[in-house]
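Notes from the 1:1 (GR / supervisor)

We went over the backlog. Supervisor wanted to see one worked example end to end before approving the batch request, so GR pasted a single chain during the call. The sequence is below; no edits were made to it. Supervisor asked that the structure be written out right there so they could see what the output format looks like.
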Amino acid sequence: MARSDLTGEAEVLRNLNREIRKIKGRTVKGTLKAGLLIKRRSQDEVPVDTSNLKDGAYVETISQTPEIIVEVGYVAFYAVYVHERLELRHKVGKAKFLEDPLKISTGDVLRIIAENARIR
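Structure output shown during the call:
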């Protein structure tokens, strides 16, 4: 689900980016760790039939300059369809399996980035 316009995603990302800019000395390591947290939480919510969707989760550093960008997504071609179809019922998992963990993890993401930005 690389760079799609998910409902509510833009606002959450704007808020996260604003707060991250306030943290001096942020690091790729902290941002990557935060992305891994989102991935892990998302995989707890992703619908599972054959495990193809769940197994296709990824975290990738897209850019380090001028700002650090880490992407969390799913490679299955149908990931957006499964993510956005609220009317579908799944035996395991649910829709918004990436967006919801992102929304509830904002505080944890900022804490992880701040902890890793500290000078040790």
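Supervisor's comment: The chain has one domain: 9-117.
Batch request approved.
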